[in-house]
Amino acid sequence: MAVTATAPAIGSRAITSRTGALAVTAVLAFLVAALAVVDITQGTAAVGGAEVWKALTGAADPGDASVVIASRLPRAAAGLLVGGALGVAGAALQAVSRNVLAAPDTLAVNSGSYLALGLLTVTGAGLPLVASSGVAFAGALAAAAIVLSLTGPGAGTVRLVLAGSALSLGLSSLTEALLLLYPERTNGLYQWNQGSISQNGFDGVLQMTPVAIAGLTGLLLVARRVDALALGDEAARGLGVPVRGTRIIVVVCASLLAAAAVTLAGPIGFVGLCAPALVRPLTRHVRALARIRAGLPVAGLAGAALVLGADVLLRASVSPEAAVAVPTGVVTSILGAVFLIGMALRVRDTTTATSPERPRIPSRSAFLTTAAVLTVVLAGTVVAAVLLGDTKLLLGDVVNWAQGRAGQSVSFVLDTRIPRVLAALLAGAALALSGTLVQAVTRNPLAEPGVLGVSGGGALGAVLLLTTVPLAGSWSIAGAAFAGAAVTAVVVFGLAAGDGFGQNRLVLVGVGVSAATTALISLFIVLTDPFNATKALTWLSGSTYGRTLPDALPVAAALALGTVVAVLRHTELDLIALDDDTPKLLGLRTAPARLGLLVVSVLLSATAVAAAGTIGFVGLVAPHAARALVGRRHARVVPVALLLGAILVCTADLLGRTLIAPAQLGAGVVTAVIGTPYFLYLLVRARR
Predict the structure, then answer these.
(1) 7-65 pLDDT, tens per residue?
(2) Which stretch of DSSP H or E encloses residue 314?
(3) Would you list the DSSP string of 527-580?
(4) CATH code, domain carrying 282
(5) Are 337 and 426 part of one and the same domain?
(6) Is residue 525 part of a domain?
(7) In this structure, are 53 and 194 located in the same domain?
(8) Quick one: 326 and 474 in the same domain?
(9) How many C-beta atoms lie closer than 10 Å to residue 319's C-beta?
(10) Which DSSP helix (H) or strand (E) runs through 300?
(11) Residue 371 zone, left/alpha/beta (φ > 0; ψ -120 to 50; rest)
């Protein structure tokens, strides 16, 4: 009786589940179709719904028919293909990695494709679109393989996002270097990188559709294996599933889908992250969607709805002319950044914000020796930076210049070179001190102004002022940068303070804010000066080109203030970095102390951005290296970190303007190339 009674119930639930999956699929398909219809009716030309219908039925004027057939229908088709491919890729990557934050963005897949296509563009090879997608696929696959090998299956959200973000920053920096070095060959590549589904005919869609179908087919063929992986590696092996081979197949197919989307429309940010997340809550009520074969198509439809919805929203919110200039990817990146921040607030922190180094106190002589050696290295770096460049000088030329007896050519070189060297020195020291303060206050070894979005906020404020007031002075730019950095700092630290600045929430919120600031910078550049991407790239690559002595004054003032505060309050820094209880037992009010130190850190970061643009990883590498050399006492860490930061940025600036002279690279590009491997090394060490 019991068996007879339960069997129909089980069958009923199965039928309901299948029926629910079909219902969800049908609703999403209807939504996508409706968005596609609305998208077709939007554009700069006065071609509304009636004209579109006439064009589809063959009764429209030739001009209206040309607009619909050659532009609007291909745009809607591209939105369907790109959104579907990214949604499916994100769902597959999340399933195989067992991590809800895995996506083409967080695994650096888009950045890998971007770099590969940038290299292809620089070579001048005129490959067909399908062959270009193969190049993008190779870059995407390599990036995803690196990130997944560093994190492993089931890795924590922070490790996955940090590894992907760090690698993405490094790869994007290399691509930015190509854009700056080969502006003629890469013309339009920056705008393409923002992601746009606008098309000129169906050729691109028709060529990429078989590529996307191949990726989807491969995923559906291994769907049952992927379902088994959800039980864990050991359980899957017990069922006869080749775990490693299955993961490789899924990553290859997902990379193929992402490459097809990137080749057709450029990187459309965060669709692969958001689409599966929107579908995931439905699996609680419709269990059939938890299976890959049912879940992948639904995630694809959700991705298509996101892309088309973003395009419809953009064209409905601004004028048709502005909508043409603003790429769809900027809108999805902003929405995705907000979504990532929302997910960060829901992540439960299983880690505590504590300092990772073991207590060690080197002798005073070791500290003095280290400081002396670094001072000598800094002096040598400064001398080399002043003497070397596209024009090589001698020390005698510098002496004559200082005494006002140098020739016109020497005076011109030094008048432009010395402010650059000074800006690099001060910016490096300021970023190092800012990172030291942030890591101490949050007790988070992975915190630094760039990762937490504070530097991005400063760059956003500076770029916003420059795009609206091109003749703004140094102090005005510094003030705008501080305002932008302050706003982002309030958001990041305010949202992370609820759980004591835990690693998960702090870093995830910071990454989300950083992505939003990057998208907004691109938005302002595209809207104000769409044909001058160099303005944004200058800030994003951390260039000191064209700096003058007045440009260095704000960061010099902030650095002097920050150094005095850090030296006078080094004991408080030691106590705050230790734990929450010890400072209270000793009568220290931690909340005001933390707030004051964070304000100083934001001021340092903002003025450094105003002086030298966005330079990443200095605030991470310098404090880590300083603690490794002289221990954890901030009376010793602060001066050593200052020296290391100044050396790092000054060396990066020197290499950037000498290695490929007369062409130049921004200091931020060089520090990203240096800092990315170090950052990934820290993640690997933490995993071990």
Answers:
(1) 333 344 444 567 878 888 899 999 999 998 888 887 766 666 666 666 666 666 666 66
(2) helix 292-317
(3) HH-TT-THHHHHHHTT--TT--HHHHHHHHHHHHHHHHHHHHTHHHHHHHHH-S
(4) 1.10.3470.10
(5) no
(6) yes
(7) yes
(8) no
(9) 10
(10) helix 292-317
(11) alpha
